[in-house]
Amino acid sequence: MRASLIQIAVDQGESVHSRRQRVAALVREQRGADLVVLPELWPVGAFAYESFAEEAESTAGPTYTAMAEAARDAGVWLHAGSIVEKTPEGTLYNTSLVVSPAGELAATYRKIHRFGFDKGEAVMMGAGEELSTVSLPELTLGLGTCYDLRFPELFRGLVDAGAQAFVVPAGWPARRREHWTLLAKARAVENQAYVLACGTGGTHAGVEQAGHSIVVDPWGEVLAEAGAGEEVLTVELDAAKVQTVREQFPALKDRLLGLAPPHRD
Fold this sequence. Notes:
This protein has 265 residues and is α/β, with parallel strands linked by helices. Helix content is 26%, strand content 27%.
């Protein structure tokens, strides 16, 4: 299975409409891939809080429309990163969209752990409440977003839901880049799953981005890692490796905490 991660450079001088069109063209260039992944909140910028309300849209809005057409043209599964979603009730969410090769919305995920420590995203957006997985022909993906990477219980829940790979779009700051790579490796090792973590370059509202998108295999080996600027990573994923690692080193079978107690008559 071939996966391409498109690390977008977000320039606040570029309009949201122009960025949508540019990114759609980049997605179309990935014909031949099975899965394409985009970063978190790339249309507006993860730290551009002042623009969230103005650029909010529905899950059937202009970003979905542009990405659905691009996915259909390229014939790929597309994790379209995340958007600022606005519900009919007016609540904002940081919502990821997964689009099928037919251009249909296959899955959504509202970010559960909001970043900001009582400001920014943490107070402007609602918290998601549900885990989300989507089954591709070769792999079942578990969905997380950026700050979620710091909460291992979410990813263990996704494993229990059948995930063999985690897709984590992000807008991770450069000053915490070491945490980004460390946590991506940790989530892969402890869950014996692929991690496809796709970040952004550029600067969002004065916050320099880490870049360094990374793909880690179920044994914890780094298959590819980007630099700081705009870049496309393309890797081959072996779906059978997940099962092989879990069988040869069956640590998940030794779990004692977090499991439902056995039923007793």
